């Protein structure tokens, strides 16, 4: 990712979601929806500053993005201690404060819940705000975040192609991603490799073009990929 978060503030979307293996397809769908809209996804995985604490990095990331999308699907207790996930509502609270303190002029945020979730039961302060609901599939979440950005994204940047074309391209992305001989555990693709495939697919369709200038190429250097031999 680009190093200086401030430069592209107007085109960046902070993504707040749970980090577990079951959620990975949904996380990829969120990021792909942002890239397909012609914008730049920013997640906690993109934050690497050894001189700053995690909370400080999150504040910097949120305030350096004009948009943020928050998934509140992990509201139930889990594990032997029956603990619920708290990081997502904490980060959403930070984003909401940032948005409200600037009267939504400097930050726009939305939260997403699977259909049927009674979010007002576990986050009553959000009563009166309409969540963006999605069916429990990555494609449905992708459509929800893409259509939100298509409505409110910056004119001249945000893409306007039909949602069905974005969903079809997401399938193209997953097939290409599955062919990577990656740098992650068990030779799975790393975060930066997955993001590179995402950018390449969206660029191929003419939706994401931040590498169209010398400055853009410097901010988004291409990540080399190696693909497994087809059997």
What does this structure look like?
The chain is of the alpha/beta class. The chain is built from 8 helices and 5 strands. 40% of the residues lie in helices and 10% in strands. The chain has one domain (9-219): Toll/interleukin-1 receptor homology (TIR) domain (Rossmann fold), CATH 3.40.50.10140. It starts with 11 loop residues before the first strand and ends in a 12-residue tail after the last helix. It has a 5-stranded parallel sheet with strand order 2-1-3-4-5, with helices on both faces.
Characteristics of this structure?
231 residues; 5-stranded parallel sheet; Rossmann fold; alpha/beta
The number of helical elements comes to 8
Strand ordering within the main sheet? 2-1-3-4-5
Q: Report the CATH superfamily.
A: Toll/interleukin-1 receptor homology (TIR) domain
Q: What is the average per-residue confidence, as pLDDT, rounded to a whole number?
A: 86
Largest sheet: 5 strands, parallel
Brief sketch in words of this structure:
The protein is α/β, with parallel strands linked by helices and 231 residues long. It is 40% helix and 10% strand.
What are the SSEs and their pairings?
Elements: E1 12-16, H1 24-36, E2 40-42, H2 54-63, E3 67-71, H3 87-101, E4 108-114, H4 119-122, E5 132-134, H5 138-152, H6 163-178, H7 191-204, H8 214-219
Parallel strand pairs: 1-2, 1-3, 3-4, 4-5
Helix pairs in contact: 1-5, 1-7, 2-3, 5-6, 6-7
């Amino acid at each position: 990712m680009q190093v200086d978060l401030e430069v592209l503030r107007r085109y960046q979307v902070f993504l707040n979601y749970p980090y577990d293996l079951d959620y990975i397809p949904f996380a990829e769908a969120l990021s792909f929806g942002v890239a397909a809209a012609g914008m730049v996804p920013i997640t906690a995985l993109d934050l690497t500053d050894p001189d700053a604490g995690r909370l400080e990095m999150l504040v910097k990331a949120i305030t350096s993005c004009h948009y943020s999308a928050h998934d509140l699907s992990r509201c139930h207790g889990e594990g032997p201690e029956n603990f619920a996930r708290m990081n997502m509502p904490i980060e959403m609270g930070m984003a909401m404060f940032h948005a409200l303190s600037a009267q939504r002029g400097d930050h726009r945020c939305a939260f997403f819940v699977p259909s049927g979730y009674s979010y007002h039961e576990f986050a009553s302060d959000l009563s009166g705000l309409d969540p963006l609901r999605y069916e429990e599939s990555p494609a449905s979440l992708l459509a929800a975040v893409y259509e939100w950005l298509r409505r409110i994204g910056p004119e001249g940047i945000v893409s306007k192609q039909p949602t069905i074309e974005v969903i079809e391209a997401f399938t193209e992305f997953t097939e290409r991603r599955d062919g990577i001989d990656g740098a992650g555990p068990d030779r799975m693709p790393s975060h930066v490799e997955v993001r590179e495939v995402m950018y390449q697919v969206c660029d191929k369709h003419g939706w994401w073009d931040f590498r169209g200038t010398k400055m853009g190429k410097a901010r988004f250097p291409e990540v080399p990929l190696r693909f497994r031999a087809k059997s």
